[in-house]
Design brief:
The complex is a heterodimer.
Chain A: H1 29-43, H2 46-49, E1 63-71, E2 77-78, E3 81-82, H3 83-96, E4 101-112, H4 117-134, E5 138-146, E6 154-164, E7 179-183, H5 189-198, H6 215-223, E8 230-233, H7 238-250, E9 253-257, H8 265-274, E10 287-292, H9 296-304, E11 313-319, E12 326-329, E13 335-337
Helix pairs in contact in A: 1-4, 3-4, 3-6
Chain B: H1 10-23, E1 28-34, H2 35-43, E2 54-61, H3 63-66, H4 69-79, E3 84-88, H5 102-107, E4 111-114, H6 118-127, E5 132-137, H7 144-157, E6 162-166, H8 171-179, E7 188-192, H9 193-199, H10 202-211, E8 215-218, H11 222-238, E9 243-245, H12 257-266, E10 267-274, E11 278-287, H13 296-299, H14 301-305, H15 318-322, H16 354-361
Parallel strand pairs in B: 1-2, 1-7, 3-4, 3-5, 5-6, 7-8, 8-9
Antiparallel strand pairs in B: 10-11
The chains are: A alpha+beta, B alpha/beta.
């Protein structure tokens, strides 16, 4: 009789897997390996390494900012960035737009069964690098695996906590007629970069995503004593959508000068070709700042010290005419409404 | 940007507008044929630069807008078939048929793909030999050569899982339909520059003479449109009836010969129903008999034969808008019961539709 103790022989997933399997989200050994080998190794920091259900830290007095965002970009990698850098920078930027100094991030992954571990590693390394560059650690996280066909490779959620310095208030309702509208740089390169790889289009001049963390620029503006009335990062929907949101929230009018809006040549060319308006194309490292007119020049000088804002420009003013409406003065000197689109822009026929 | 900025120069635009004001002594009603020109006019507010006695009327030159409800219904039917990859240009997806739009099919699980070039669709057919790739071939003379090329290459390569649902339309028969209508009030045309890039403008010379109407082949940038208007107004004021070419940097009298040749090889004129207008003889294209294996209406005869005739929303007045008889903002449903989110008709959602242009650029009551 065989007295050997019972040993399970069913093929438990083990390390060395090349693709993500359902067991990687199952709470067992494989999931622990994934957490240790991929996430902890890349994101390593003291708060994360306690490997507790959450991260804890002592709080200073002040006002907390808290935000969350989910990332579902296709393709996962594009010129100038990837879903990982986007997920880190995007949430940092949402905190920065509240006037906050970002402190910590969390991340949640929804992985599709069959995803290459190499691809996951690349995304995670990119997140770690972006977090390091920004100086904002990822301190807690979660992973789930869904059946093949139920996801699109990787979905990432990041949340972030930040601290708003005393005396800083940045809100749409503070926008006043007479304020200057500033934009931190050239528009549309993220949307065009993603479109170019998604659709296999090639354009003259390499267009790279503008994905970048913006909190250092915002901190610099605050430290320089600029009286910021409102900040808003330009993501989906582009400049036009953000200006409409702000005009509606603050019940003010806005007049924007089309020739003053920075759009670089390759982006303009691609948009002309596809019938897209760069004012509605997505950005991931640009923001609008609304400040009193007398401080506009000083604010622009501060912004331009940063690479991500080297093309910062004043593009318009806040008015008390046509409340909740954005009026564009066109390149030929006429006026028209700059409206919200009902959905995504679609490339035209001819 | 080269070839763009120099045609958006503010000082030249102002000078051209001044020239038009000086020239236009009497009231004139002129039509820009192409939806691309309509959008340039509204996007850049060019009509606000023109004198009040000059009325710009928007024409039927938006291929998406004029595609009949029945054809949209056919597209929706084919796109819903399980083995079909349905390819369309982007702005066709939002256009309502009588049983929903292509976005709805996509949401319900249909394989609907946005393409940028007909040859991309042919590549899909190569990559998926076990599936049927059906393309919604929509457009004026401008896009016809690319579809003709795709069909010609498909036949040469022996690709059989590729077909076109053809909604192609031709500009000159539509212009003639407008001119021969008893309600017509158009006194001059800005002809569509891109269509003429392919087709040239010889065929417009007969129309100009037959209907005693001056025509200026015109481009799409603000200065193109203003110069086209200036040339047209000069003809009207001087009593000349000619076909002139403003868009010389792109258009020649005979057009693009190789492009015309491939279109003539693959397609032939056919009657076509225009949304809101009705059937115009010889105003569409169909595949010649040697290429009928690539005609989705033939290939999917059984499936399409079960469809009832598409019904347009009775409240939609797009037929009047497309003939220049009604301005979008004068439609009682504009901006209320008809919006880009809930369109009654295609002109509200197409990127070249007149209603879409007014909705997007003109909602502060100007114009």
């Amino acid at each position: 009789m065989n007295n050997k103790p019972f040993e399970p022989t069913c093929p438990l997933p083990t390390s060395g897997k090349k693709t993500v399997q359902l067991a990687h989200g199952g709470g067992g050994r494989l999931m622990q390996e994934l957490i240790q080998d991929v996430f902890v190794r890349a994101f390593h920091n003291p708060l994360l390494e306690s490997l507790h259900d959450g991260a804890t830290w002592p709080v200073e007095k002040g006002t907390l900012a808290f935000t969350t965002d989910s990332y579902v970009v296709r393709p996962l990698f594009f010129p100038g960035g990837d879903i990982g850098s986007l997920a880190v920078n995007g949430t940092i930027n949402d905190l920065a737009m509240c006037g906050a100094k970002p402190l910590y991030l969390s991340t949640g992954f929804i992985l599709e069964e069959g995803l290459s571990i190499d691809v996951l590693q690349r995304v995670v390394r990119s997140m770690a690098e972006a977090a390091k560059v920004a100086g904002v650690p990822i301190v807690t996280g979660d992973t789930k695996v869904v059946d093949r066909g139920k996801g699109d490779g990787i979905f990432i959620n990041t949340s972030g906590v930040g601290l708003v310095p005393n005396g800083v208030r940045v809100l749409p309702m503070l926008i006043q007629p007479g304020d200057a509208i500033l934009v931190s740089g050239d528009l549309g390169s993220h949307g065009v970069a993603v479109l170019s790889v998604r659709e296999g289009l090639t354009f003259d001049g390499n267009v790279e995503s503008d994905t970048a963390p913006l909190h250092h620029i915002v901190a610099d503006l605050i430290d320089s004593g600029i009286e910021i009335h409102c900040l808003r990062d330009l993501t989906r929907g582009g400049l036009a959508s953000v200006l409409n949101e702000l005009a509606t929230a603050a019940k003010v009018g806005m007049t924007v000068e089309e020739p003053a809006i920075p759009v670089n040549e390759p982006v303009r060319g691609a948009c002309e070709l596809l019938g897209l308006d760069p004012l509605y194309v997505a950005n991931e490292g640009r923001f609008v700042a609304v400040v009193p007119v007398p401080q506009a020049e000083a604010a622009l000088a501060v912004m331009r010290r940063h690479k991500a804002a080297s093309q910062a420009a004043q593009i318009g003013i806040v008015t008390d005419r046509d409340p909740s409406m954005v009026i564009l003065r066109t390149v030929v000197g006429t006026h028209r409404v700059l409206d919200l689109l009902s959905g995504e822009q679609l490339p035209r026929i001819c | 940007m080269k070839y763009v900025d120099e045609f958006r120069d503010r000082a030249v635009a102002t000078a051209l507008a001044e020239r038009i004001k000086q020239t236009a002594q009497r009231p004139w009603t002129i039509m820009e044929v192409c939806g691309g020109q309509t959008h340039a006019i509204v996007r850049f507010g060019l009509d606000s630069l023109l004198p009040k006695n000059l009325e710009l009327v928007h024409g039927p030159g938006c291929p998406v807008c004029v595609t009949s409800v029945s054809l949209i219904d056919q597209a929706v039917c084919l796109a819903s078939l399980p083995n079909v990859i349905f390819c369309s240009f982007g702005d066709m997806l939002r256009v309502p048929g009588s049983r929903g739009d292509l976005f709805g099919v996509k949401a319900a699980g249909g394989d609907v793909r946005i393409i940028y070039s007909p040859l991309d669709a042919l590549d899909l057919a190569r990559k998926h030999p076990d599936r049927e790739v059906v393309c919604f071939a929509v457009g004026f003379e401008t896009t016809a050569p690319a579809w003709a090329m795709a069909v010609s290459q498909a036949r040469e390569a022996g690709i059989t899982n590729f077909s076109l649902l053809i909604a192609h339309v031709l500009v000159p028969p539509a212009m003639e339909a407008i001119l021969s209508s008893p309600q017509n009030r158009i006194q001059g045309f800005l002809a569509a520059g891109h269509v003429c890039t392919v087709m040239g403008y010889e065929e417009y010379e007969a129309i100009a003479q037959r209907y005693r109407v001056p025509i200026v082949v015109t481009g799409f940038e603000p200065l193109d449109v203003l110069e086209g208007v200036a040339m047209l107004v000069s003809q009207l004021e001087e009593g000349r009836v000619e076909v002139e070419n403003q868009y010389v940097r792109s258009v020649s009298r005979e057009g693009n010969r190789p492009a015309r040749t491939i279109v003539e090889e693959v397609f032939e004129p056919a009657p076509r129903i225009w949304r809101g207008i009705g059937e115009i003889p010889g105003s569409g294209l169909r595949l010649k008999s040697g290429y009928s294996a690539y005609d989705a209406e033939v290939k999917f005869q059984r499936e399409l034969g079960q469809l009832s005739v598409g019904i347009e929303d009775p409240e939609c007045q797009s037929g009047l808008v497309l003939q220049g008889l009604l301005k979008p903002m004068d439609c009682s449903a504009f901006g209320t019961r008809c919006t880009p989110e809930k369109p009654l008709g295609a002109p509200m959602v197409s990127s070249e539709g007149a209603c879409a242009a007014y909705y997007r650029y003109r909602r502060n009551g100007e114009g």
